[in-house]
Amino acid sequence: MRPIGSINPAEETEEQRTARFVEARNKFIEAHHELVAALDHNSPFIDQKVFEAVHALRSRTTREKIDLQIEQPFTSTWFDRGDTALSDVAMLTYRVSTAIRERVESLVISE
After folding, report:
1. Cα angle at 81 between 78 and 85, to 5 degrees?
2. What's the pLDDT tens digit per position in 67-111?
3. What is the reported pLDDT for 5?
4. What 3 state SS string does 15-52 have?
5. Residue 57 in contact with residue 93, Cβ under 8 Å?
6. Which distant-in-sequence residues (6+ apart) come within 8 Å of 74 by Cβ?
7. Residues 6+ apart with CB under 8 A from 47
8. How far apart are CA 16 and CA 92, in angstroms?
9. d(CA 48, CA 106)
10. How many Cβ atoms from other residues are within 10 Å of residue 12's Cβ?
11. Are 93 and 53 in contact (CB under 8 A)?
């Protein structure tokens, strides 16, 4: 979610950088709310292992959302926390995919 510190348009002002961040943050928050709604509305129909994996991802993205809303952006600590969040979300996304694959593999078609 957080931009890479060394990648900015050549002549971008601080205001433009902040505006670009706010727009990206708002898109992230909207996507997070969609994840929360989908999980809340469909939880009775989701396999338990898949649900647990998605719930862990949801919990981590909730922490990132809060961090993005309250932390001062563009500091070295802020970027470091973003690196940690990226690693965590990548690992949790892999766990969601694995849980879904395992569930699909366990399905049996009977006639």
Report:
1. 135
2. 999 999 989 899 899 999 999 999 999 999 999 999 999 999 888
3. 55
4. HHHHHHHHHHHHHHHHHHHHHHHHHHHHHHHCCHHHHH
5. yes
6. 5, 17, 21
7. 99, 103
8. 32
9. 13
10. 12
11. no
Long-range contact set of residues 24-27: C-beta below 8 Å, sequence gap at least 24: 25/1, 25/68, 25/69
Task: Look at residues 79, 27, 82, 37 and name the one whose alpha carbon lies nearest to residue 60.
Answer: 82
**Token pair belonging to 19:** 């505006």
DSSP 4: P
Q: What is the pLDDT of residues 1-60, one digit of tens each?
A: 676 655 777 788 989 988 989 999 999 999 999 999 999 999 999 999 999 999 999 999
* Cβ proximity of 65 and 28 under 8 Å: yes
Whole-model pTM: value is: 0.86
Indicate the length of the chain as a whole number.
Answer: 111
